[in-house]
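hey so i finally got around to running the thing on that chain from the lab meeting. sorry it took forever, my laptop kept dying and i had to restart like 3 times. anyway pasting the input first so we r on the same page abt which one it is
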Amino acid sequence: MNEQAAAIATASLSASAGLAGKYMTFKLANEEYGLEILKVREIIGLMDITRVPRTREFIRGVINLRGKVIPVVDLRLKFDMDRIEATDQTVIIVVQYRTEGQDYTMGILVDEVLEVLSIAPDQIEPPPDFGSGALDTDFILGIGKAEKRVIFLLDIGKVLSAAESRNVQATAQS
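ok and heres what got predicted. didnt touch it at all, straight out
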């Protein structure tokens, strides 16, 4: 292995080490995703979501959670998947994250929560490179491998752009 390849391998390994930890895994369609457990506040069963007029389709609306109004984003729609009817497995994961120095709380609608999984550095690959500008994958921290499963590890703070995050929070306050 030449020096450049060794340096790239070392950088990749140290980046993976920074991503290792506990992730809450969930399903959307037939795909598995993981969220850093420290960003998950709670999981709630599906409840009435009040649609807010003139918002983007992936912003499902707001919920009243113990007196606090929280916006809800449908990850299926945000990821350009087909909308489906809710099942008894459909839940809202309430997450909290920080972007551009601002704290945000929102609910994300997912098909099913699976488990909390510890993922070691050697189980994490960098996100695939689809070529310059071909596809925005900044929201993918890495690809986790558990048994024969592939899990997209999400940076929830980058799933929405900063402008979309502000828009979603404004929705909750309107």
